[in-house]
Amino acid sequence: DFGVVAMCAPVLAFIALFQDFGLTQATIQKTGIRHEEVNYLFWINVAVSAILACVLAGAAPLVAAFYGEPRVAGLVAALGLQILAYGLGAQHLA
Asked: Which residue ranges make up each domain of the chain?
């Protein structure tokens, strides 16, 4: 079971590189930010995370075929929920 998770980890790490597009850092570094801007950035983060979660779910069969392990597909698709959850909280953390 640990091996199955280890097979999924590089895929999740690669997808996470594109997750916030640096928007949380931009929020932190801006000296004055309005509520409307934070709201807009929140929805951008949610949209990008949803797209990445869908990409991850779509790529799950390919990852399973690459490793030759069918159990990887379900786990990779489920890890898309982690991507989506981070997108919902990214601006709140910033």
From this structure: 2-93
